[in-house]
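Predict structure. Input: Dihydroorotase, 430 residues.
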Amino acid sequence: MALLLKNAHVIDPQVGLNETADILVRDGKIVEIGQNLAMEKGVERDLGGKVVVPGLVDIHVHLREPGYELKEDIASGTRAAAHGGFTAVCCMPNTKPVIDNAVGVEYVKARAAAVGKCRVHVAGSCSQGLKGETLSEMGDMVAHGAVAFTDDGRGVQGAGMMRRVMDYAAQFDRVVMSHCQDEDLVGAGQVNEGVVSTRLGMLGWPAEGEEIQIARDIAICRLTGCPLHIQHLTTARGLELVRAAKAEGLPVTCEVTPHHLFLTEDAIGDDYNTFLKVNPPLRTAEDAAALVEGVKDGTVDAIVTDHAPHNDFEKNAEFELAPFGMIGLETALALVITNLVKPGIISWERAVELMAAKPREILRVERVALEPGAVADLTVIDPDAAWTVDAADFQSKAVNSGFIGAELTGRATDVYVGGYATMEDGAIVE
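Output follows.
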């Protein structure tokens, strides 16, 4: 199939592109980018006023399938991804059963091929059953397409175990993505330990419960040489640890979420809104400001959502009984545009680095760029679209977003995966 996208503002720092141009796509690949392009037959669309960037990818998503399809499944989760402007996601292995062997990897790949609205990369677990005791079948999972390893949902508690994980992952040139949580220190913590935990009468979750494991895993990265990626980093000191590791030349990267950038512990009021209960917890305003600075100065490598869908009945419970997590696939792009790009804190180019280019480098998957020969995974954005986050608008099965009611600017209108539209004019293509 041939596709011609006309008059778009194309932006891709990977190839130094920031101009108005046409994009010609044929057989799933970009054929040409230039002025006044034409084709004999195919689909032609005028994207005047729109921005086109390499397809966005979210490398930290919970699709919940297999086992928790009541919360989300691969069909609904990838619809939510496409609706948010993503052409690919990387799904976490804390499903039921845990994705700790090749069968789990192949199941997700098969389901995504059958019902998915975006590409799905699969992360395998580090340990069998996420128990942190015995290595998962890492080599077999790599052979069947696993792109990374993580025990996301809980940290690998033993330093010796983490060393074994990283020794093995290094053999396959796969990144280990670390959920940094010292369970002995965090205990039954519910919210960030400090003024707000005291005000709410909740058990505190100290920042050190995250930072100690960040420091430990950086040390093990130094020992093993294995690429290390710090997941959902939330604290200023944690960011400093990553900054120092990068300065040392270690293969360390990190990610942050929109909710840790743009919400703080102060958002949790006397209504005890469980949509704001996340793991790790919302931190202080000072921490959030430090994360924004890290995004700005290049210390942060990726913005991810940690999209964590839950049922209404689970979240509609006492704060300490409700599960951790919020959804984010359908709001992330707009939050970044509204809070970072529009105010001039970061450029469009930096946004593309954070949400498209660098995440793929971390996963070691195929580069997606606006250049001839590249796969035609494209995100089309209306940079000036004004909208209000409404639960009724979500494609996800879940509505547990901490941003409901937020007034945002900028939104994906079209998504192309391999040259085929999965979203067109804001509607998912059936």
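The CA atoms of residues 127 and 136 lie 4 Å apart.
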